[in-house]
Amino acid sequence: MIKAWTGNQIRSAEAPLLANGQGPELMQRAAHGLANAIVRGLLRRRGQVYGSTVAVLAGSGNNGGDALYAGAFLARRGAQATAVLTSARWHTEALAAFRRAGGTVVQAGQAGPALAGELAAADVLVDGILGTGASGGLRGAAAGLVAALQERISRPTNGTGPLVVACDLPSGVDADTGQLHQPVLRADLTVTFGGAKLGLLTDPGAGAAGRVWTVDIGLGPHLPEPALRRLDPGDVPALWPVPGRSDHKYTRGVLGIAAGSASYHGAALLAARAAVATGVGMVRYLGPGEICGQLNLLAPEVVCGSGTIAENRSQAWLVGPGAVADPEQAQRAREALASGLPVVADAGALDLLPAELGPHVILTPHAGELVRVLAGQGVSVDREQVEASPAEFARLAAGLTGATVLLKGAATVVASPAGTLFSQDNATAWMATAGSGDTLAGILGALAATVRPQDLDRAGIAAPDHFAAVAALAALVHGLAGTAAAAGGPTSAAAIGHAVPAVVRALLREPEQRPGR
Ligand SMILES: NC(=O)C1=CN([C@@H]2O[C@H](COP(=O)(O)OP(=O)(O)OC[C@H]3O[C@@H](n4cnc5c(N)ncnc54)[C@H](O)[C@@H]3O)[C@@H](O)[C@H]2O)[C@@H](O)CC1
Ligand SMILES: Nc1ncnc2c1ncn2[C@@H]1O[C@H](COP(=O)(O)OP(=O)(O)O)[C@@H](O)[C@H]1O
Ligand SMILES: [K+]
């Protein structure tokens, strides 16, 4: 499990150490971690550190101090290091160390227009302008310089241009929300200190951070419960509902699905097939007879039925995919939402939410649908606002509705109504294709019906967060299945579902054979 904290949580954890006079020591640990990561990057790219060009953008605070000490370390290893001071103030000791190591210093405010071009030609560019002490985004000379660099350094780099390394976080990323205050220089690698910051693991910050590497500076004993968690492949075996010898289909769990309508057959087929692929005792399907017929040709193991929710005993329900303008399906969604059973409410069902929901109801909106869910709670936002701060709005929606909210995106965030966040970044942009969400709904439905609460307890997940963890698990498997199905090229929603059994099989294997490692 990967954990992340807000900037303030990290700063509070540092506070007792700073009060003990350990500030300089912490900074040395941070700077060494940063320098070591840069050395590894240089060795991979150039085969040596000696003779490489390293440019350090250094702001006025400790973030600049970390970056300057790292620059000094690299200069002593034979790099040609240049520091660009972005403010009229700087970390005095760190700059002195940088100069002693042979580094060259320029002031951003006094440099000519050629500076951005020169920096863009360096082997490594270190963003040490702002860290957790930032308020708002870059201003003045720093903003102008970063905007000019944004134009010169194209992303993705395809191996050309400098290796951009963010010190603690890319300057302009909000450590607590992942919001971007432009201009932000997108990093290839973010080396973060003491613990990952929430804003590095949720979009859009995650998109600007590149790979995130955490340097242990000894804050561990002082850190509170994390503000956000991410399941990793190693967490799956402990949570996965592997059937035991004494299990039969009803003890494993039955998922009921009320999806599809006259105009949308595909969503029901995709969701039901993905649920079967995820492994469930039984899938019951309720909906138009025509869909049942098609479904049974594709998935004869699905038991088709009619009637109400109460008449079709299940351990969990999936309602809503493709269910529009169909009064019978709407009635089933309402009944499922009131049943007290775990319910995955997707697409059409998101417009049918009752006033009172609990964490056992998992809403699965994309950003546009979350706008509607929030409107139903009297909150007026637009899609751009949700996309600019998905973690914040997912948490708001969970708090207001009382449900668990899984907000789909490049990184998918899950919020429990208790305020706990998960974020999964296992997907590939090839999965941005119609029906991919229906496949996720099927995977999640299957897990909602089958994951055992005692396994979640044993994994240290608090009861109010159980359904959030199940949703995160589904997003993890969906992302890995999509990545496997795409294999670097186009894929389809059906192919994502087909890839699930092999991905789960691999996840349950020995550690070194797991995907996503
Ligand atoms: N506290 C510690 O002892 C440690 C802190 N570490 C580093 O210290 C950083 C936090 O240091 P600071 O608290 O000095 O904060 P920062 O380095 O983030 O910078 C704060 C400084 O930037 C200025 N500033 C704030 N917002 C600005 C804006 N929008 N535009 C321009 N200037 C702005 C402030 O006036 C202040 O001088 C962390 O991110 C991390 O890199 C590490 O050295 C580990 C130990
Ligand atoms: N850029 C992206 N990168 C990774 N995953 C993505 C991206 N865009 C969308 N996805 C994933 O694809 C799925 C799309 O779901 P959704 O928008 O509901 O589509 P649909 O309604 O067509 O099924 C979600 O799981 C989402 O997380
Ligand atoms: K930074």
TrEMBL record:
Where, in this chain's numbering, is AMP bound?
A: 408-412, 437
Q: At the top level of its lineage, which domain of life is listed?
A: Bacteria
Q: Where does (6S)-NADPHX bind?
A: 62-66, 131-137, 168, 267, 322, 366, 438
UniProt cofactor(s): K(+); Mg(2+)
Against InterPro entries, the record matches this protein to: Carbohydrate_kinase_pred_CS, CARKD, Nnr, Ribokinase-like, YjeF_N_dom, YjeF_N_dom_sf
Residues in YjeF N-terminal domain copies = 10-225
The keyword Lipid biosynthesis is annotated on this UniProt entry:
no
Its EC number(s): 4.2.1.136, 5.1.99.6
Name a Pfam family for this protein. Answer: YjeF_N
What this chain does, per the record?
A: Catalyzes the epimerization of the S- and R-forms of NAD(P)HX, a damaged form of NAD(P)H that is a result of enzymatic or heat-dependent hydration. This is a prerequisite for the S-specific NAD(P)H-hydrate dehydratase to allow the repair of both epimers of NAD(P)HX. Bifunctional enzyme that catalyzes the epimerization of the S- and R-forms of NAD(P)HX and the dehydration of the S-form of NAD(P)HX at the expense of ADP, which is converted to AMP. This allows the repair of both epimers of NAD(P)HX, a damaged form of NAD(P)H that is a result of enzymatic or heat-dependent hydration.
Oligomeric state and interaction partners are given as: Homotetramer.
Name under which the protein is recorded: Bifunctional NAD(P)H-hydrate repair enzyme
Q: Which organism is it from?
A: Arthrobacter hankyongi
| Gene from which the chain derives | nnrD
